Amino acid sequence: MRQDVDRGKANIEAFLCPEVLTPLEENYMHWHNRLYHLPQKYTKRMSESGLLPAEFAKMKKIPKCPGCELGKGHKQPWRVKGYPGGSIKKNFETNPGDAVSTDQLVSAQEGLIPQVMGTLTSARITGATVFVDHASSYMYVHLMRSLSTECTLEEKAACERIFATYGHKI
Q1: Which residue from 18, 79, 23, 91 is spatially nearest to 53, judged by alpha carbons?
Q2: Cα atoms in the Cβ-side hemisphere of radius 13 Å centred on 100
Q3: pLDDT value at position 76?
């Protein structure tokens, strides 16, 4: 299991730090993308048979495709049973609002605030706070313009108001 995690890190690092390609490698990647990310062994066969440039068969180092590397990142063993007690819900948490987990997400790139109507604004979202109720699995996400303590407390109050509309107290 640990080996899969390490391999996943290598895939992401290869994507975040791309290598500089030679013109031959760029041409290879062009054909690799054009052929819908065809595996290397088939590309080599096609170049040996003359369907692709013959230089591809002689390449010693094949460049890594970031798209293919990220595509491999989701591969996990799926034929396993879940862990015993895999839920965070405890036996005594039977009513909504008994226990709520909170997490904050910080955006690496600020995004525009979603708007359906009204005057467009240039205000940006810098993160979000996620509230998850253990008993009902209800999730409330509040977008943040600022990551200050005051804004976080306002979001907590907004979550409490949402739960109050359903008749539950956090």
Answers
A1: 23
A2: 19
A3: 64
